[in-house]
Amino acid sequence: MQGLRDVSGIRIRKIFLVPAFSLLAFVVMGYHPGLEDDGVYLPAVKSWLNPSLYPHDTIFFRIQMQATCFDRWMAAFVRLSGIPVGGAELLWQIVSIVAILFCCGGVARMLFKDESAQWAGVAMVGAMFTLPVAGTALFLVDQHLHPRALATALILLAVWCVLAGRRLAAALPLALALALHPIMALFGISFCCFLAATTMASAHGWGQSWTKAGRGPIAAALVPLGWIFDPPSALWQQAVHTREYLFPDRWAWYEWLGAVAPLLLFWLLWRIASRRGETLLARFALAVFLFGAFHEALAILVWRTPALVRLTPMQPMRFLHLVYLFMALVGGCLMGRFLLKASVWRWIAFLLVFNAGMFAAQRYQFSSSQHLELPGRPTDNPWLQAFAWIRVNTPTDAYFALDPYYLSAPGEDYHGFRALAERSQLADAIKDTAVVGLFPALAPVWDEQTKASEGWEHFQLADFERLKSQFGVNWVLVSYPPPQGLQCHWHNAGISVCQVP
Questions:
Q1: Alpha-carbon span 41 to 39, nearest angstrom
Q2: Which of 111, 121, 233, 465 has CA atoms 20 to 30 A from the CA of 434?
Q3: Contact 386, 478 (CB under 8 A)
Q4: For residues 289 and 280, what is the distance between their CA atoms, to the nearest angstrom?
Q5: What is the pLDDT of residue 441?
Q6: What is the CA angle 407-60-381, rounded to 5?
Q7: Residues 204, 205, 206, CA angle at the centre, nearest 5°?
């Protein structure tokens, strides 16, 4: 009986470890709905739920949703569950975190036998969710619900299936990932091809199997797409060149080090694991190295070939997202095996150092916002206070103008106006450029609207009237005290919400 109780206790601890590490990861990374890319995804969800929203600017987020079912799926979930959008986003953010760490545990169990290594890998990934991925402008997991997080969990599940020898079973999660986030799913499919090749190969004959199983990603890369070679317009180039991370030649030296060093580490791990007889770990490391080297070569080809410049917004260097995820997982596993082992004090030090460091970085990055912006929780951020007032007190067809660089304003912390105020706005000069990069036909509209808002900090009544005459703008978000002549309805210490007469 005592033995059975001991076994049951071990199983219970295992069951609760993933949720515990998930909760810790959530607290460390923070939660910021409407942030960054959520400025595109969240309005798309809300517009499906209430079609009267965004009558003037739907094109700036809806067009990007054509390749994903995420927005329609989330809207359907909200309707069927009756959970408000804010609660649904929070729920699925937590689900995505749990799913990622659960699948990381599955991959770790395939590669490492000792439990301390497996759980250290899971803990490391959770702590490193907000680790910047070289110069790609990506985190491992965003501080808001993003289809990339759900796709990442599905890709990890597919990797787990391939490692377990169930290669056909990997097709379903990869197909679901493709429906949610096509770019990340294609990288996941590519990696699974490399992994299948290395795991099917014999110890001395992996080259032939790699050639056979690697045809998928190579063939996909060579498919002729005529639009790629269309000459880009000057306006499109202007928009795209505002996104520094799309151009590796502008990366700092340490960002390039972050792109190359992980591949070298996996090459080294392949050699060491092979000598130690850890066959599956060696082949996994080889797959990561080959996958990274192949996609880095493709990215450099795109970057260095003027005729392929239209592929730049597809962000070919974002393959590093998977490489970094595997680096955190395997690095944590190795720490657990050789350093932490079963020492409670070492585990405590490990968790404190990594989690506290990442927590401090997030508090510094979003110093003007609450660390956990939970639904219904009052905010001290003056920008978010303004967005909340607008959402409740202005007509749904209100058309706002605001500083085209408002996202980078002090204290704004990159929260999207459309996502949180739920109102239409003139194009901005920061986030909307990403949409223009993917859809060049938007470039003239974006250029006209952003140029009309240049010099915003010096605008007077005549400038606002010009915007109203030119675009139909009838509301503005300006500093406090506001310029004379506007009909202002609300303000706090730094921001005013006003109508244009």
A1: 6
A2: 465
A3: no
A4: 14
A5: 81
A6: 25
A7: 110
SS3 348: helix
Average pLDDT, the chain: 87
Q: In terms of C-beta density within 10 A (0-12 exposed, 13-18 middle, 19 or more buried), how is residue 493 classed?
A: exposed
- Strands 495-499 and 487-491 turn out to be antiparallel
CB 431 within 8 Å of CB 40:
yes
Neighbours of 330 (CB within 10 A): 26
At 18, the pLDDT band (50, 70, 90 cuts) reads: very high
Q: CA 42, CA 46: separation in Å to the nearest integer?
A: 6
- Mean pLDDT is lowest, of 101-115, 209-223, 431-445, for 209-223
Sorted by sequence, the CB contacts under 8 Å of residue 273 that are 6+ apart come out as 279, 281, 282, 285
* CB 383, CB 409: distance < 8 Å: yes
Amino acid at 196: A
State the Cα–Cα distance between residues 82 and 73, nearest whole angstrom. Answer: 14
- Cα separations in angstroms, 240 against 150, 221, 314, 319, 479: 27, 22, 11, 20, 29
d(CA 45, CA 372): 21
Give the whole-angstrom CA distance, residue 332 versus residue 172. 28
**What span, in angstroms and rounded, lies between the C-alpha atoms of 224 and 43?**
34
Residues 6 or more apart in contact with residue 383 via CB below 8 angstroms: 406, 409, 411, 412, 413, 415, 495
CA distance 404 to 426: 8
SS3 of 400, please? Answer: strand
The structure tokens 């005290």 sit at 481
**CB neighbourhood size of 1 (10 A):** 5
Confidence of residue 231 (pLDDT cuts 50, 70, 90): low
**487-491 and 424-425 strand pairing:** unpaired
Domain limits of the chain?
83-342, 382-499
| Alpha-carbon distances of 451 from 155, 311, 443, rounded to whole Å | 42, 26, 12
φ, ψ for residue 31 (rounded to 5)?
-140, 120
Compute, in degrees rounded to 10, the torsion defined by CA atoms 372, 373, 377, 383: 140
What is the residue whose two structure tokens read 């960054």? 36
Q: Please give the Cα distance from 305 to 500 (Å, whole number).
A: 48
Question: Cα–Cα distance between 81 and 75 in angstroms, integer?
Answer: 10
Q: What are phi and psi of 462, to 5 degrees?
A: -60, -35
Report pLDDT digits (tens) over 305-349.
Answer: 766 666 666 678 899 999 999 999 999 999 999 999 888 999 999
Lowest mean pLDDT among 124-133, 180-189, 229-238, 420-429: 229-238
